[in-house]
Amino acid sequence: MTAMDLIAKERDRLLQRTARVYGLSFTIVSLVCLAIPGAVDTASFFVCLPLYLLIAFCQYRIGSSRSMLWVIPIIVAGLGIVAVVTLLAPESTGEAGVSAVAQMTAASMASTAVVLTTDLRRRLFLALSFLLTVGLTTSLLLPFQPPTRTIALVVLGWVLATIIGFWISAGVPQAARRIASIGRAHRAERQASETEAQRRQGARLLHDTVLATLTLLAHSGVGVAPDAMRQQAAEDARLLRQLRLGATPTPQSSGVYNLENTNDDMVLGTTLESVKQRFGRMGLEVSWHGTGQVLLPTEVLDAFLLALAECLENVRRHSGVTQAHVTITEDETMVRAMVTDSGVGFTLDDVDSARLGFKESVVARLKEVGGKARLFSAPGSGTTVVLEVPR
Question: Are the C-beta atoms of 389 and 369 separated by less than 8 Å?
Fold first, then answer.
């Protein structure tokens, strides 16, 4: 279900509940007026009572159903009440009876206008119901009050209910858009905060490790044994490799970080998830399909993931979309990754040969480990890159 469908559903629900409360309230008021002694004779009251119950039931159902079948009985039964009060025993009809009719036609029946404002078919039915109510009510109440008074009351009631319906119909989408805007602003602020926190963490991490080693080297390693220097530099190299693959080493103490164990073979799924999370933090949603339980030698895995990361970086920077799909497949000899996006695409012949991003960071990198890359794109049709490395 799309966002517009959800907004329309919420709008209809609010309109229905408003019509229910609006209609039932004035139905009760009209019935109370009719029950006042001297309003109508006893026979007329008991003839009208089932019609009131029918109207109340239909108004209750309107609160949970969009069907127009609940509107029709309200109009018919309401006009029936007007006819009974004014024609069955007109000599017994008092001011309270006329007031009950006014409440019924100008408010209770008019409540249906709230749910008849959402589309053209309903608006046509609204206009027909309004004209029918005004015409019959005015003619039936001629013996009891001037026609201008009747017309003014009924028109005012129906116009007010119609305005409420249009106001809700216009207000709900505006509120939804404002809520969505607030949500986007919140996500942007949270992403900015996370990015700043990651930047500071990265700065601290590099200060505690690599920069400390470089400082020692700049001072010729004075006071540090050569073996200790080589071991520290090796640990820094492992740390940089993890950062390059999207991992976040956890500090155990000042200057000492918990590095994952790097064996000769590594599971592709674990490291690919790190790449996915890294780009997710930068605003590119990566959907991963296919297998991930593939063991690859370390140097092959490095080349494969770094080439894949370069492809995703190109999607993030150039495609104009915020979502990419990565599909991993394998056979007995090769592991493949297909990176696709639905962005703007480009003409392959228009790519400047002097640009080294794809040529060096993807093609050359994979070629060094026996792999290859293929690129497919066209303007307006997105881009697909197929990466292959040997197992």
Answer: yes
